[in-house]
Amino acid sequence: MRGRFYRIIRDLHLYLGLFISPFVLVFAISVFFLVHSWLPRIASETSTTRVVSALPLPQDLTTLSGRPLINGLRPTLEKADVPGEVGFVRHMVKEQKLIIPVTIPGRETTVTIDIPTREATIVTRETGLADALVTLHKSPGQHGANIRMNWFYMRAWRWMADATVYLILFISVSGIYLWYVLRAERSVGFILLFAGALSFFGMVYALVH
């Protein structure tokens, strides 16, 4: 029974680790672009501007806010051919305009809608692969939780990010178990485990004092 349990954990450790490795690489590589501004961004930014007219707007536009407002403006963005995650909606009452930033990893679009004429000026910036990785790294989280994850593909990314965290926890625990079962590796493992714990708690101590 113990041998069978060991083989099951070993296989799960291996295959689940292979499954999540692309997601771990995305988070790992994007960290370099987050903390090192001197790194090249792989591709230069490009920008395009276009105008779209006769856009539909929700009838109760002035009474909507937050997520209901974003949901109400989805048909408007679809008519303007602007898919992506809406960051916020800025309603400039005096100017009678709406400003809507929309993001796809590697692309940032600003939609400025003139409410009386129902005409939108759409500025799209292609920001490249490095920025796309940074966007994916920062997107899951509680910032703006009441409006964020309003695009299906970004919600799917959040689900995969959550799954990656849970699987990393499993791989970490199963890795400790597999190491402990292999008696010949225990001495080296204890040394590395102690060194890792010492480094971690030393860094935490330095940060909080």
3D structure, described in words:
With about 210 residues, the protein is of the alpha+beta class. The chain has two domains: about 1-40 and about 160-209, no CATH class; about 45-125, no CATH class. It is built from five helices and six strands. It has helices at about 1-35, 65-80, 130-140, 150-180, 185-209, and strands at about 45-50, 85, 90, 95-105, 105-115, 120-125. Strands 1, 2, 3, 4, 5 and 6 form a six-stranded antiparallel beta sheet that branches. Strand 5 and strand 6 form a beta hairpin. Helix 1 (about 1-35) packs across helix 3 (about 130-140) and helix 1 crosses helix 4. The longest helix has about 35 residues, at about 1-35. The radius of gyration is 24 Å and the shape is elongated. The termini are far apart.
Q: Mind sketching the topology for me?
A:
Layout: H1 2-35, E1 46-52, H2 66-79, E2 85-86, E3 90-92, E4 97-104, E5 107-114, E6 119-126, H3 129-138, H4 152-181, H5 186-208
Antiparallel strand pairs: 1-6, 2-4, 3-4, 4-5, 5-6
Helix pairs in contact: 1-3, 1-4
How would you describe this structure in keywords?
209 residues, 6-stranded antiparallel beta sheet, alpha+beta, 17% strand, 2 domains
What is the mean predicted local confidence, pLDDT?
87
Number of DSSP-assigned strands: 6
What low-confidence regions span 5 or more consecutive residues with pLDDT below 50?
A: none
User: From N to C, what is the helix and strand string?
Assistant: HEHEEEEEHHH
List the total number of helices: 5
Give the distance, in angstroms, between the N- and C-terminal Cα atoms.
49 Å
Percentage of residues in helical conformation: 40-55%
The geometry reads as elongated
Largest sheet: 6 strands, antiparallel
Number of domains: 2
Structure classification:
alpha+beta
